[in-house]
Amino acid sequence: MGSKESTQRRAQRVRRQIKKVAGDRPRLSVHRTSKNIYVQVIDDSKGHTIAAASTLEKDLKGSLKTGADTAAAAAIGKLIAERASKAGVKEVVFDRGPYIYHGRVKALAEAAREGGLSF
């Protein structure tokens, strides 16, 4: 089994667990690359993205040293919490995808919790 296959299996396993516990709550989905981090609040029942944020946004790009560190992830976590609360979302299910809950993913999650999202 190659690394791509194991990554896909890990993501499927996480999503399967999320479907069991989600109920009607939206999903906070994280995508991490070597240079940036992206996050979305997705309503799976309707198939719509409620809120989104990334380190590529112009207002954040100037204030961040790089899009690939924990400080950038924390800034994105606070931003997505603000946008989700404006859209009326308080409770979400955290979808870390194939990524380990450590480093940038953990910093984003903690900042989103501090910003008012509960998961």
Can you offer a commentary on this structure?
This protein has 119 residues and is α+β, with helices and mostly antiparallel strands. It has a single domain (3-114), classed as Nucleotidyltransferase, domain 5. 44% of the residues lie in helices and 19% in strands. The chain has four helices and four strands, in the order H-E-E-E-H-H-E-H. The protein has a four-stranded mixed β-sheet with strand order 3-2-1-4. Helix 3 (70-86) packs parallel to helix 4. It is globular and about 40 Å long. 28% of the residues are buried.
Key words describing this protein structure:
4 strands; 119 residues; alpha+beta; Nucleotidyltransferase, domain 5
Number of helices: 4
Biggest pleated-sheet summary: 4 strands, mixed
Strands, count: 4
Oligomer: single chain
Overall CATH architecture = 2-Layer Sandwich
Strand order of the largest sheet: 3-2-1-4
